[in-house]
Design brief:
Strand content: 5-15%
Number of strands: 7
Oligomer: single chain
Strand order of the largest sheet: 2-4-5-7-6
Order of helices and strands: HHHHHHHHHHHHHHHHHEHEEHEEHEE
CATH superfamily of one domain: Histidine kinase-like ATPase, C-terminal domain
Distance between the termini: 163 Å
CATH architecture of one domain: 2-Layer Sandwich
Length: 589
């Protein structure tokens, strides 16, 4: 049967074609922006994973602009979430905050808990990076309320970890330990065992801050490095952290061993971990003052930074390249600073050792001089006491007083008065002169005259004496030790004239030499020095020895020692010659 068309059929076909065209062109007009936004979002995500942050920002921002916030594909909140991370990497903090607010607003309006949690986490990260830890903690608590309502174990574990890290940064270590332990218990009881890596790492860092070094080491070694159940292993990071723990613990050899283990993984690790290993090494060698290793590590570190700097030359990595350039400059300055500090410490050490040595030597000199001064003072006092005992001894006093008594009884008043006059003058001058180290030659001769006159009156005409001084010598200017001649004169009278049957005679001669030194000679015509030892000769030798010691002590700082010579006369006539030489231009102490 043949089909026949009515005359209006072309109009019907035209209506069908127009209707089809309308619906065909209307659908792309509705979906074209969404498709473009999806493309932009996809390209932005690719650039994020490639660390090309400028390009990633451009595409993600275009995606967020082109798509409607009410679009069911969720491209708008996803693009905002990416943009927040990108702004963090580009250090655009104001844009981070603006994008985080937009994401939070969208999540509240659409009642989307997933992106609400993300917005809270973005806020917490923003304030954490700005070092506003209490504000960051408040957003973690807001997120935690949503997590607990959803009974999301995985995010609750992550919330405990975040609170542990924040409390550790705030120095509230007990609270940090509480939330970290809570996260560990949840992870162990759940299927999210891979969370234990970060939890135990944080736990070890908390122990380290609490200076519980052994617990920190055991936690990290057994529960992080050696734990077989963890899915994620980062050996270089683990070795770096163990290096840090052992260095702070003071186990420097163990720290170096872990540092060497990190070096063996050097080629296999990424850039950030390699930089971290260098930083751990620099810190360790600085603490242990291993300057040679420190210099080598700085050179290696600089070489790695240069290599990384040259590698990242594309425009997309210009921010990272700039950071590396700054890092190179920082560590070049740090190298110079460490070298200067090392040299300064060496200099300070040498100066300190020199000061200690000088103080020690100074103390030795001080105590030596003090001891010598005390010994000299004691010697001076002992010598003066012995000298006083050797002079004007009680036996002499008794004899003098006995002679005076005899003169008084015999009625010889004039001789008794003359005798008493010589005795009183002798006694007074003896006491006065004994207080001084030096007296004038005039005073010494006057004292000697009184002594000889007194002895002459005691023994009658048994001996005579004569005191002769150099006519050119100024007796008032010449200084010499007091009572230096009297002991030798006394020896001549008491011992030299005792056993002779002829009149004795004493000559005392004092002259000043051309070099201004003084020579004193005491000569007698007595029996001379006896070869046999008697009590009298022992007393004579003792007095002579005391005089020699006294002169040596008085002139010990002058550099010129006096000399005393006692010999029998070389002539046929018996007797003794005493010669005393005193240095010139010296001031005894």
């Amino acid at each position: 049967m043949k089909v026949q068309f009515k005359p209006f059929t072309p109009y019907v076909l035209l209506l069908v074609l127009v209707t089809g065209a309308y619906f065909f062109f209307k659908k792309p007009a509705i979906n074209r922006p969404t498709a473009s936004a999806a493309y932009m979002y996809k390209k932005g995500a690719e650039f994020v994973y490639a660390n090309r942050w400028d390009s990633a920002e451009y595409y993600c921002r275009r995606a967020a602009i082109q798509v409607s916030p009410q679009d069911s594909t969720l491209i708008y909140p996803k693009s905002l979430s990416y943009l927040i991370g990108i702004y963090h990497r580009l250090d655009k903090r104001e844009k981070v905050l603006t994008a985080s607010k937009e994401l939070h607003k969208w999540a509240v309006q659409n009642k989307n808990d997933t992106f609400l949690l993300q917005s809270y986490k973005k806020f917490a990260t923003y304030y954490y990076m700005g070092n506003n830890l209490p504000k960051a903690l408040s957003y973690i608590d807001r997120a935690r309320a949503v997590i607990e309502a959803r009974k999301d174990t995985y995010r609750l574990i992550d919330s405990n970890l975040s609170k542990g890290i924040l409390y550790q940064e705030m120095g509230r270590l007990n609270e940090a330990e509480f939330f970290t332990d809570a996260g560990i218990r949840l992870a162990e009881q759940s299927r999210y065992k891979n969370s234990l890596y970060n939890l135990h790492t944080t736990q070890a860092n908390i122990y380290l801050d609490k200076k519980q070094f052994e617990q920190a080491y055991h936690t990290y070694y057994f529960k992080v490095l050696k734990a077989p159940s963890l899915l994620y292993k980062d050996k270089v990071s683990d070795y770096n952290n163990l290096t840090n723990i052992c260095a702070k613990w003071g186990r420097y050899k163990l720290a170096e061993a872990y540092l060497d283990s990190a070096k063996q993984e050097h080629i296999l690790i990424d850039d950030d971990l390699r930089i971290e290993r260098h930083q751990r090494a620099l810190s360790l060698y600085t603490d242990t003052k291993q300057f040679d290793k420190l210099k080598k590590e700085l050179e290696s570190y600089r070489a790695d930074l240069d290599s990384l700097y040259q590698y990242r030359t594309d425009e997309a990595n210009k921010t990272t390249k700039s950071d590396l350039a700054n890092e190179r400059q920082i560590y070049a300055l740090k190298a110079a600073q460490l070298e200067n500090e090392y040299q300064l410490k060496q200099y300070q050490t040498y100066v300190l050792l020199a000061c200690v040595l000088l103080l020690f030597i100074g103390a030795l000199i001080f105590f030596y001089v003090r001891n010598q001064r005390i010994l000299r003072e004691q010697g001076r006092i002992n010598l003066e006491q012995r000298l006083l005992r050797s002079q004007m001894n009680p036996h002499f006093m008794f004899n003098v007083l006995g002679g005076l008594q005899s003169l008084v009884r015999s009625g010889n008043t004039s001789d008794a008065l003359q005798y008493l006059k010589h005795f009183s003058h002798l006694l007074r001058q003896n006491l006065e002169l004994s207080r001084n180290n030096l007296v004038s030659l005039h005073d010494e001769i006057e004292t000697l005259n009184h002594y000889l006159a007194l002895q002459q009156m005691r023994f009658g005409a048994r001996f005579s004496y004569h005191i002769q001084t150099d006519s050119a010598a100024d007796t008032d200017e010449i200084q010499l030790p007091p009572m230096i001649i009297q002991p030798f004169v006394e020896n001549a009278i008491e011992h030299g004239f005792r056993q002779i049957d002829y009149p004795g005679h004493i000559d005392v001669r004092i002259r000043q030499n051309t070099d201004a030194s003084i020579r004193i000679e005491v000569e007698d015509n007595g029996s001379g020095l006896s070869k046999t030892t008697t009590i009298d000769t022992q007393k004579s030798s003792l007095a002579t020895q005391i005089t020699k010691e006294r002169l040596a002590w008085l002139y010990h700082q002058s550099g010129h020692q006096p000399s005393v010579s006692i010999v029998n006369k070389a002539t046929q006539q018996p007797g003794v010659l005493v010669t005393i030489d005193l240095p010139a231009n010296t001031v005894p102490v």
